[in-house]
């Protein structure tokens, strides 16, 4: 259903009422949930002098001693959604889920869960779930009338194996591509890499370039590990609170009240004790900013300039940690010269960011003097064309002020948390030599490959996510997928990408399987146990790949069956056995057995090199536990696992690697060409060269330009940015759940009152948001907490979300019809979702 005909007159009235009335709805808050064996708190008696009715101290439990609602089994599981990694107590009665509570024995979680946790049950008895493999039998690819018929798993896997072996035998194994997503159980990516190695394809890609790869890349370049540097809660190695002990929280583009509500609540509780200052830098006043001491309304896509200005102020004022810099930092003099020669001053940054110079100076002063101070970032930084360089500049901030390797400090760049590749035993078979380079980083390169044949034409894709919602320039991606030779989609629901598929494969949700499905950003891993039976014929992803390997073994005419079966033992279909292989073969994971984690209330943090090790909270801490971890990681005696063993701002070798793509290791300011202000940009050239961070893959050669080569598009006076609709939603999956659609099924376009008045628009109006790439529909929500030159467009809505029909909701087109796949971070492939030229008109 298109946006243009998605709402009639009655619906329009309803949408207007919804927009205006949303301010009257109660706030969605995290709440504590008592464990099953905890008695209800007693109510305090009312004062005799009280003039009002007595109020209970806590809600009364009306289910107590209910025979029907008393669980006969409680299973320890974990929430499938955001990276707070909440532990769940799943209450069962006769094999059915009757309640979900949070873990009160985890001090960080403190018994709390958010609205999404109870939505886990809506993934089970959901009539829109994919329950059996399906094969296309009719309809044009991508069309709503696409027809599919159920087939068996044997049939489905045989079709895939035949297609891929035929491509391999034709010398085109490199044209087979996989695309993962964050919904996967941990370690599935390692199985995919193993199978693709045996097949001969270098293109087992991940979702990082549409999520948060850039932060991990920057952390690894500067410090040696691409991981969140500090932890939530008490560090068992030192007995000290880690992140909660910060005196200053500097949030760049991260709305944790909606994206990480439970761990954010932990920070807020700690802040009540410490008096720590919280500053949020964001073009709009998010629910996170409402908790802050200061909100800095920065111009979209210019955080990089703000950080450079802070660096210059701290250096000029000599607010650096001289002892740490002299002993542990390489490249500091070069950084000083770089900032000076390029004129990166506070006044320059203020002009670029549209932030008062005094405010930037205050930020620099407070951050440098707080001791310790913690930086937090999320997609707001990752989804910029300068993401890698912005994150790199932030690592310099932490390094020169002594805020690295200390509790309460660090660079806490979210979602880049896993301990690298989970490793399996080495392959015993002689694998084919891969002669073609991997495609350039970023799943959005798919369209370039299919439509333009650069660097070669992709012929088969298996996707574990939904590129039709997550990839930039949706119109172009759809055109490419309609021409894709063979496409396999795996997922919970028949999402937009599934309409382009030749095969649909059903997977399990989190409550249906054992595993370590999600984790905290701080490298903390929690074991979960299956609570219910699998829905239909759904399989967990790791089983699908093991079964596919055994199907390839039956059909491969060039290799004996053992070529595949020895690499994928059937015993690994038991996740506990598969996990044990990961624990045994992955550096610094030997202390993270399933048994140890299953017996813990709190998750266990990597690195954790042996069963007695407490796990590492603060990376790079001068402590024996970190020394043990470094030895297990293959860096004995080092504090930082970089080539030099120190923090590397710049080295000659680093500079040489970046020079191959036309860049330098010391970041030079640039931004999106559609940012207002005619600012410097990185021009992407046609030539493909090795990526300096991912040398097995290619990237565009780039050149710095003081101004865009073409002027900003005329007739598009505003800057648009996309992001999460609210705390109710997580990616597209919650759009298929009744609670998600009921509570936030309308796409509210946020606009400043002055901007709306100039355009003669009112809250509740149906509006078009249009960019040079396309347009999408929504409902206007006038919001004072946003810059007048900026419009916020919620993502995750899509035209296949049929559940909305039951709530009389529109079928919205993807917000990524507005974004441009030509603009991305050349190092990480990170897509530029946080700025596009746009206009808003009444529909």
CATH class of the largest domain: Alpha Beta
Percent of residues in β-strands: 15-25%
Assembly status: single chain
Tell me how many strands there are.
31
- Major β-sheet annotation: 7 strands, mixed
Tell me roughly what share of residues is in helical segments.
Answer: 25-40%
CATH topology category name of the largest domain? Rossmann fold
Shape: globular
**Total discrete domains:** 3
Describe the strand arrangement of the main beta sheet, using strand numbers.
7-6-20-19-18-8-9
Structural class: alpha/beta
Radius of gyration, taken over Cα atoms and rounded to an integer in Å = 26 Å
* Name of the CATH architecture of the largest domain: 3-Layer(aba) Sandwich
The DSSP helix count reads 24
Biased composition (Low complexity): 34-59
Pfam family, one: Molybdop_Fe4S4
Keywords: 4Fe-4S, Iron, Iron-sulfur, Metal-binding, Oxidoreductase, Signal
Organism: Tuwongella immobilis
């Amino acid at each position: 259903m298109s946006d243009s005909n998605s709402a009639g007159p009655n619906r329009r009235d309803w949408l207007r009422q919804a927009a205006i009335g949303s301010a009257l709805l109660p706030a969605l808050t995290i709440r504590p949930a008592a464990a099953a064996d905890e008695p209800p708190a007693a109510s305090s008696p009312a004062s005799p002098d009280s003039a009002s009715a007595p109020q209970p101290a806590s809600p009364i439990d009306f289910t107590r001693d209910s025979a029907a609602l008393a669980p006969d089994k409680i299973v320890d599981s974990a929430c499938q959604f955001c990276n707070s990694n909440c532990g769940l107590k799943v209450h069962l009665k006769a094999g059915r889920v009757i309640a979900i509570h949070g873990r009160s024995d985890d001090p960080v979680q403190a018994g709390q869960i958010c609205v999404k946790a109870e939505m886990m049950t809506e993934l089970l008895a959901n009539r829109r779930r994919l329950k059996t493999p399906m094969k296309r039998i009719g309809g044009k690819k991508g069309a709503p009338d696409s027809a599919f018929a159920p087939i068996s798993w044997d049939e489905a896997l045989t079709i895939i194996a035949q297609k891929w072996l035929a491509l391999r035998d034709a010398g085109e194994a490199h044209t087979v591509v996989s695309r993962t997503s964050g919904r996967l159980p941990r370690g599935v990516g390692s199985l995919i890499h193993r199978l693709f190695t045996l097949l001969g394809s270098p293109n087992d890609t991940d979702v990082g370039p549409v999520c948060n790869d850039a932060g991990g890349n920057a952390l690894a370049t500067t410090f040696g590990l691409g991981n969140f540097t500090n932890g939530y809660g008490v560090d068992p190695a030192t007995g000290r609170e880690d992140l909660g002990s910060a005196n200053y929280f500097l949030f760049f583009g991260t709305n944790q009240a909606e994206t990480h509500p439970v761990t954010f609540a932990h920070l807020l509780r700690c802040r009540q004790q410490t008096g720590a200052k919280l500053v949020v830098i964001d073009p709009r006043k998010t629910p996170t900013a409402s908790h802050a001491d200061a909100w800095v309304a920065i111009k979209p896509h210019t955080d990089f300039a703000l950080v450079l200005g802070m660096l210059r102020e701290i250096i000029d004022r000599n607010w650096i940690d001289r002892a740490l810099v002299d002993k542990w930092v390489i490249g500091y003099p070069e950084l000083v010269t770089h900032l000076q020669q390029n004129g990166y001053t506070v006044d320059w940054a203020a002009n670029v960011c549209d932030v008062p110079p005094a405010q930037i100076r205050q930020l620099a002063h407070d951050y440098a003097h707080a001791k310790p101070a913690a930086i937090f970032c999320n997609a707001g930084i990752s989804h910029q064309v300068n993401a890698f360089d912005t994150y790199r500049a932030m690592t310099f901030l932490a390094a020169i002020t002594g805020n690295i390797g200390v509790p309460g400090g660090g660079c806490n760049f979210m979602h880049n948390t896993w301990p690298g590749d989970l490793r399996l035993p080495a392959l015993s078979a002689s694998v084919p030599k891969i002669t073609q380079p991997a495609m350039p980083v970023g799943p959005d390169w798919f369209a370039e490959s299919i439509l333009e044949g650069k660097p070669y034409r992709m012929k088969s894709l298996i996707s574990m996510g939904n590129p039709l919602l997550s990839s930039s320039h949706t119109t172009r991606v759809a055109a490419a997928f309609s021409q894709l030779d063979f496409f396999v989609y795996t997922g919970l629901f028949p999402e937009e990408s599934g309409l382009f598929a030749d095969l649909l494969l059903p997977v399990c949700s989190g409550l249906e399987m054992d595993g370590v499905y999600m984790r905290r950003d701080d490298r903390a891993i929690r074991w979960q146990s299956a609570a219910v039976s699998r829905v239909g014929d759904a399989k967990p992803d790791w089983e699908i790949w093991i079964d596919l390997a055994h199907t390839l073994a039956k059909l491969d005419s060039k290799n004996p069956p053992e070529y595949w079966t020895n690499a994928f033992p059937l015993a690994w279909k038991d996740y506990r056995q598969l996990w044990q292989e990961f624990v045994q073969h992955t550096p610094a994971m030997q202390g993270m057995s399933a048994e140890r984690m299953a017996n813990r209330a709190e998750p266990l943090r990597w690195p954790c090199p042996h069963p007695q090790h407490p796990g590492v909270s603060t990376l790079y801490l001068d402590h024996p536990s970190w020394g043990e971890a470094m030895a297990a990681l293959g860096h004995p005696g080092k504090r930082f696992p970089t080539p030099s063993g120190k923090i590397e701002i710049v080295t000659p070798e680093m500079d040489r690697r970046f020079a191959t793509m036309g860049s330098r290791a010391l970041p030079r300011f640039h931004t999106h060409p559609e940012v207002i202000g005619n600012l410097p940009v990185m021009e992407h050239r046609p030539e493909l060269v090795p990526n300096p961070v991912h040398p097995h893959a290619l990237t565009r050669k780039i050149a710095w330009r003081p101004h865009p080569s073409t002027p900003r598009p005329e007739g598009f006076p505003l800057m648009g940015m996309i992001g999460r609709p609210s705390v109710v939603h997580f990616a597209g999956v919650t759009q298929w759940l009744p609670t998600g659609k009921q509570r936030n099924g309308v796409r509210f376009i946020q606009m400043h009152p002055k901007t709306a008045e100039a355009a003669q628009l009112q809250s509740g109006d149906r509006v078009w948001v249009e960019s040079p790439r396309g347009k999408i529909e929504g409902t206007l929500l006038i919001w004072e907490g946003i810059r007048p030159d900026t419009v916020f467009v919620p993502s995750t809505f899509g035209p296949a979300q049929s559940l909305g029909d039951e709530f009389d909701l529109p079928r919205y087109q993807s917000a990524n019809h507005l974004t441009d796949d030509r603009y991305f971070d050349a190092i990480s492939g990170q897509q530029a979702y946080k700025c596009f030229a746009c206009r808003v008109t009444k529909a």
